[in-house]
Specification:
Blueprint (H helix, E strand, L loop, with lengths): L5 H8 L4 H20 L4 H49 L8 E7 L2 E7 L1 H9 L2 E6 L2 E6 H10 L4 E3 L24
Length: about 180
């Protein structure tokens, strides 16, 4: 007994009719002819190539974003290193004094004991207070301005210089000698 093809078996059971079998045979024959000519199923290959190209593009974009983030972190580390170096090289030795200078650090009032001359320099803006790790350092105002340009979170106190009183609107008024502040 000869083996029947799948189409003949489906036809015998009644799952397909003769028209459907002829249509499938014709499509199969056309497909075989295309395969011989080299034109077989171009849509499958094109779809795969498009998917692969899209995946490569997405990966390239993701890699680009990661590289930008890494570069940004490297630049931030370099800036923090520069600031640390500027503070360490330009810090002024604190003269122990009995005058307290009050300032804020992260919404908390802090106190630093300095001499009268340092207190005056801080008040007039010739000195600034910066935070390095957990310590407070005094530096000159020009250095504090350079640090502020890079990262303002390090500078806690940097008063504007008030030495020139040319723009003072109250310069014409006399201050009484007996006035106590």
């Amino acid at each position: 007994m000869a083996a029947k093809s799948l189409q003949e078996q489906l036809l015998g059971v009644g799952l397909v009719d003769k028209k459907k079998v002829k249509k499938l045979k014709a499509e199969s024959l056309q497909h075989k002819q295309k395969v011989k000519k080299g034109k077989a199923a171009p849509t499958d290959m094109d779809d795969r190539q498009e998917v692969l190209k899209r995946q490569r593009d997405e990966k390239a974009e993701k890699d680009k974003q990661l590289n930008l983030e890494r570069q940004k972190l490297i630049e931030e580390k370099a800036i923090h290193g520069q600031i640390r170096q500027m503070i360490e090289q330009n810090r002024i030795k604190k003269e122990s004094g009995d005058i307290s200078y009050h300032f804020t650090d992260n919404k908390k009032v802090k106190k630093l004991y300095v001499s009268q001359s340092m207190h005056n320099d801080l008040s007039y803006g010739r000195l600034a207070i910066v935070k390095l790790d957990e310590a407070y350092e005094l530096i000159a105002e020009p250095v504090a301005v350079k640090i502020t340009e890079r990262d303002s979170s390090y500078v806690l106190v940097c008063n504007n210089r008030t030495e020139s009183l040319d723009d003072d609107p109250y310069a014409d008024f006399q201050i009484p000698d007996d006035l106590m502040w």
